[in-house]
Amino acid sequence: GQPRPLDINIDEQAAQKIKIGIYFATWWALNVVFNIYNKKVLNAFPYPWLTSTLSLACGSLMMLVSWATRVADAPRVDSEFLKSLLPVAIAHTIGHVAATVSMSKVAVSFTHIIKSGEPAFSVLVSGLVLGETFPLPVYLSLLPIIGGCALAAITELNFNVIGFEISTGFMGAMVSNLAFVFRNIFSKKGMKGKSISGMNYYACLSIMSLLILTPFAIAVEGPQMWAAGWQNAVAQIGPNFVWWVAAQSIFYHLYNQVSYMSLDQISPLTFSVGNTMKRISVIVSSIIIFHTPIQPVNALGAAIAIFGTFLYSQVNLIPTVFFFPCDLISTSQT
Ligand code: 3PG
Predict the structure, then answer these.
(1) What digits encode the pLDDT tens for the residues 279-324?
(2) For ligand 1, atom 2: residue with the closest CA
(3) Count of CB atoms situated within 10 Å of the CB of 216
(4) Are 94 and 48 in contact (CB under 8 A)?
């Protein structure tokens, strides 16, 4: 049965917060490495449909090997589970390929500015589709988070890209926002009350998405383009190019796996807010690695966004934990 409000132990909550904090830090760090290698690969090899497919293939392979060697316990899946996973996998595939197409057309930071609006999409979809509402302070705390992230990245925008590329980059990131919000909400429902772990849920999602994406990748780009593009990339970068592709694929799987381990514990909206904060680490590290000159406005934006997240955590968690502990179960865990 459900624990009574008073059964919720404050120590357990502190331990839970530390656990989520560790998941978030790991998720963000893995994502930074993914973003850097992903962009390096796309610069030399502009075939986002293939790189998206390879990321899923690599993750699927890693998990199949882990299950076969019993490094991880294989989940028990039935046809009902697979049926419920299908819409999630379609959303994951669309969100993934759309973000990668976006990043192949524009600066990584441009994609991340648009994607920092994900919590707004989460609130919108939760409201329109699930009829869920949040207290006003939650809505208000999203403003500095989204606005601050945009400021953190704004000067890195490269305005000399042509209109078509900007609009593809913009639309890709917007489609990705929408698709991922649906993915998160339905994943959360799919994991709830089931014995499957976040790690195995994401593994099944990867495998199904790979099956969905492969025929489309072949239709849109195809082996001929890939072969010519690969030769070109190896000529430019050298034989190490294959390791860049391996790195972007492995880190793609790892960061998503850890993100699903946290989604298992938090609400889709908190997930989206964590994901938006992650974008600051991506911007900051790309500034350091690609030697982008930093402007005071970027630092200000990052500070505003971090403050916004602090506000979000206060309005979203503290009142529920200390004043309405029973809501912790319904708000934070659903
Ligand atoms: C992808 O390829 O799926 C995107 O780069 C991921 O976007 P995310 O930062 O929302 O995970």
Answers:
(1) 888 877 877 776 666 678 877 887 787 777 777 767 765 433 333 3
(2) 96
(3) 14
(4) no
